[in-house]
Amino acid sequence: MTGFHDYAQYDGLGLAELVRKKEVHPKELITAAIHRIEDLNPQLNAVIHKMYDLARKTAEGNLPDGPFKGVPFLLKDLLADYAGVPTRRGSRFYKDFVPDGDCEIVRRYKAAGVIVLGKTNTPEYGLLPVTEPELFGPSRNPWDPARTTGGSSGGSAAAVAARMTPFSHGNDGGGSIRIPASCCGVFGLKPTRGRTPLGPDRGEAWQGLVCNHVLTRSVRDSAAMLDATAGPDVGALYFPPPPSRLFREEVGTDPGTLHIAFTSKSFLPGAVHKDCVQGLEATVKLCQDLGHEVVEAAPEVDGEAFARAFLTMVCVETRADIEESETLFGRKATFKDFEPGTWASALIGKQIRAPEFSRANRLLQSSGRLFGQFFEDYDVLMTPTLAGPPVEIGALQPRGLEAFSMKLLGSLHAGGLLKRFGGIDAIVDKILGFIPYTPLFNATGQPAMSIPLHWNDAGLPIGIHFVGRYGDEATLFRLAGQLEQAKPWAGHIPPICREVK
Q1: What is the pLDDT of residues 437-465, one digit of tens each?
Q2: Contact, 449 vs 480, CB < 8 A?
Q3: Catalytic residue among 91, 168, 176, 367
């Protein structure tokens, strides 16, 4: 191997500092990153489109003097259009789509100085909390390749955990940054609603629940990248109050004594695994040892009503996405163009009447009022990130009679029957039971993060979830920096990485 041999030891800011000091050239970083991708990706399937030639050409040119000048980076293949590079959204329907321009978040990543090496795997349309698209096959967890990476930013999380790049792009509409961060043992923050741009083609996604950011190994990389990308773009529908200073400055700042509430009680239907409860209990003690006031408390949530409202919204939005895609490509979609679950969701969405959709959105919005009142008394809420360790690949996919019925009714366009016979209820039990904490805070718009603070006896990472007040990423970054110092996770390296030559 030629290139920079210590590449995997540095975070993004560390690599950028070496470039600034001219101790390493961006070409060497690109060579090192490509080596790791080529060595590990056949086992992990994290990167599904390679941009090596473009990356090498970019490294030879005049890079913007941003905070991450010359640092390798990966884009999730969803809501991240890069001019001249395919955007497939994990879907056969998009397999030939090549955008002719960059979206705003990609422009800002480029201005930050990163060099994009490729696109990462994602479930079709980002719908599932696991990354197992039929088009590209499943991404595999670096800690155990038989296990899920989580989703929908699962390819990005696996790439970061495997040290392919120090950070990668993700987006989060129901936990899609935080879920894979927990499964893969990396840091993942979902910013406040509207903090990062979704333009120029979208005002919002999933009724305002979706936002862009990154998955990282260090807290400071997440903060510095948010500094580089935050702020409204032209025509933004809304945006939160700007921070009083750079987020990067918050990392390492003493958070003071925080009033932290915690709960292991699931907000949505389903039980919580003992490994996640143990991780939470250990983190409660850690926060107490750091001087914070930690009490067991949480608002009462009607989990079943929230879950149904959330999935009602998702089904309608999926239908809208497919119809929008039909207009873009000038042809009608059929059930053969999509996975059975995606098509079934869209068929259910077509059956939902406008008043039902509006009532679902009103219920989702009411959660912001509920948690807003709760955070009048607390600085942070702490929970497990997930209801269990990363599940085996395929565990959340439809099987047997469920899979057969979904395919049959989908082929018959029988959306009414799917809806009448409890299509949404089946999704609630199986899918949302794995992610009972994260979707709520997409609905409230609050910033939230998953921190890799615990590993179970099987060596699988267990993320701990922290939620801040609306617009208050600063407190989360201060707390995350303190926890990173108190219980460092950078030394936790997946076994598969030790095989890299």
Answers
A1: 999 999 999 999 999 999 999 999 999 99
A2: yes
A3: 176
